[in-house]
Amino acid sequence: MSLATNRLLQLKAALDFVVAGTDTTSTTSEWAMAEIMRKIQDELDDVVGKNSTVEELHIPKLHCLDAVVKENLRLHLVAPLLLPRHPSKSCYVARYTIPEGAQVLVNAWGIHRDPEAWDNPLEFHPESFLTKNGKWDYSGNNFHYFPFGTGRRICAGIPLAKRLLPYVLASLLHLFERRFADGTEIDMLEKTGITLKKMIPLVVVPKPRLLLEKYGYWFCG
Ligand code: HEM
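^ Those are the sequences you sent over. The predicted structure of the assembly is below.
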């Protein structure tokens, strides 16, 4: 078993802890989230090192982080119904007639949680993106996983987003420890809209964790 897979199995155990427990208290959740951050931070410490900041060249080596980003995009789609389509002429799809000009919404949120395609689809399982490597990209060609949409109207920002997402997350996790703000409850409630947001924003308190004299602060962990 690779180091990355091993880390993710530990990470999954920590996340199951958060998702499965109906009586989860904020204290136990806080411990679990701390565990998850620790696994990714261990990978960052191996690949990037504690004396450096994350650079673009590190990103392809951060396999745990990549799996977490992909799994996050599976469970928490930014655009749960993609963008509406209007067929330019009537057509038949799966025994249904779609009249010309009708508005068609694709329930990508539901497809990403389809139990026939995903084991325990409501749980956070980043390791599936390590074991089925290569198959789960953002091309929109896999009809079980298309967080950026598919076809001619696929997201125009993929080249930017696929660099930015891991870079921002890696940088934040590498630079800072996080504590939840006093009174914070971890919840997964969603606010429906064109984009899917957390109903209750997560409030964390960052604390520097690296030895980076050039930025004027010191390792605190
Ligand atoms: C996490 C980041 C992002 C996600 C998950 C995302 C997701 C999506 C999705 C699902 C669609 C609809 C595709 C469809 O209906 O098939 C879309 C459309 C679009 N996105 Fe993004 N997007 C992201 C970031 C960006 C960025 C950074 C840009 C621009 C720099 C961008 C520009 C666009 C544009 C212009 C469209 C409309 C494309 C069209 O209708 O032809 N997106 N995006």
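The mean pLDDT is 80. The pocket of protoporphyrin IX containing FE is lined by residues 78-79, 82-83, 147-151, 153-157, 160-161, 165 (CB under 6 Å).

Shout if you want it in another format.
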